[in-house]
């Protein structure tokens, strides 16, 4: 829960009014959670919701949820799906601009591509009301971004500590919003949502690195150990020592496993105090931090998760406002 000072800061936010829905139906908000490459499941969720005739009036995103949410608020979901389904791991590597300060990846190549192809607009110009979450590294406060450059806000929201470099925004050093609010239901409420549909990507994440990842293990170059080696090779710290038969997990596995534990615990706590009306939980624990090339798998599971939640979702939408 936020302390008094943080609550006071939040009350100063002024979100644009949500247009009155036809027939004065309840305003639907969609909260898209953090989860790195698992976030492509959000695309399956969006596609399945549209097939159900459910189009959110506003979207709040955190980390990869901010990335996908910005594209959705701009009307670019179809274009983003086409792009991510064509990604190969070599394409992902080509997006990595290695840094020696603040994180392993600057992220500028990724955001330049994103800005050119999906979003290069001001928040006020978006088709759907949108905001995203970042974390103030100095104070630990949750920061809501909903003004100015969408691309700059998204870049701050995805600044995963240790991986992506932090972002300086309005005099603050900002990092990934998943440190404080991995599934931003509270932001959806503040934006004016009557009903919040939330997507939690971390429901089966803890312990993932020590479970069998898939029926067919990924090739070595696509494993998290392989990602770690490629990053360190670019930094000229290439691993040259022989590995013991019972080796410790890779650097990336340790980093992501720790972040998974942290974000899962935070998400459970926040969702207990700020529950969504409908919680959609794609089962994407088999996907690693950098498995952006496995989009088809994630998207399919996003659609399946909506199908599992359909009875509750329909009940909530049909009975909103009843005592």
TrEMBL record:
Keywords: Hydrolase, Lipid degradation, Lipid metabolism
GO molecular function, one term: hydrolase activity
Superkingdom field: Bacteria
Coiled-coil regions listed: none
Annotated motif GXSXG, positions: 61-65
PNPLA domain mapped to chain residues: 30-189
Residue numbers covered by motif DGA/G: 176-178
Gene3D superfamilies: Cytosolic phospholipase A2 catalytic domain (3.40.1090.10)
One of the GO biological process terms: lipid catabolic process
Keyword presence, Acyltransferase: no
Active site, UniProt feature: 63 (nucleophile), 176 (proton acceptor)
Name the UniProt record assigns to this protein: Patatin-like phospholipase RssA
């Amino acid at each position: 829960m936020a302390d008094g000072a943080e609550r006071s800061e939040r009350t100063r936010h002024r979100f644009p009014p949500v247009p009155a829905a036809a027939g004065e139906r309840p305003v639907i908000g969609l909260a898209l959670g953090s989860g790195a490459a698992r976030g492509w499941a959000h695309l399956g969720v969006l596609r399945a919701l549209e097939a159900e005739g459910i189009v959110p009036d506003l979207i709040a995103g955190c980390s990869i949820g901010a990335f996908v949410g910005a594209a959705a608020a701009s009307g670019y979901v179809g274009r983003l799906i086409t792009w991510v389904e064509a990604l190969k791991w070599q394409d992902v590597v080509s997006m990595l601009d290695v840094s020696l300060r603040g994180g392993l990846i600057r992220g500028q190549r990724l955001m330049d591509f994103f800005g050119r192809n999906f979003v290069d607009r001001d928040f006020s110009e978006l088709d759907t009301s949108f905001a995203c979450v970042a974390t103030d590294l100095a104070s630990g406060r949750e920061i809501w971004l909903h003004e100015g450059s969408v691309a700059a806000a998204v870049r701050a929201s995805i600044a995963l500590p240790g991986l992506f470099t932090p972002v300086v925004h309005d005099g603050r050093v900002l990092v990934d919003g998943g440190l404080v609010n991995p599934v931003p239901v509270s932001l959806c409420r503040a934006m004016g949502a009557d009903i919040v549909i939330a997507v939690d990507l971390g429901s089966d994440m803890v312990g993932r690195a020590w479970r069998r990842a898939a029926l067919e293990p990924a090739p070595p170059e696509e494993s998290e150990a392989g990602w770690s080696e490629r990053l360190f090779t670019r930094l000229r710290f290439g691993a040259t020592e022989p590995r013991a038969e019972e080796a410790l997990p890779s650097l990336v596995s340790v980093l992501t496993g720790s972040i998974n534990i942290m974000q899962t615990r935070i998400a459970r706590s926040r969702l207990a105090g700020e529950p969504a009306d409908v919680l959609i939980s794609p089962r994407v624990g088999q996907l690693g931090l950098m498995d952006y090339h496995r989009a088809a798998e994630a998207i399919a599971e996003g659609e399946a998760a909506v199908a599992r939640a359909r009875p509750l979702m329909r009940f909530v939408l049909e009975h909103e406002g009843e005592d």
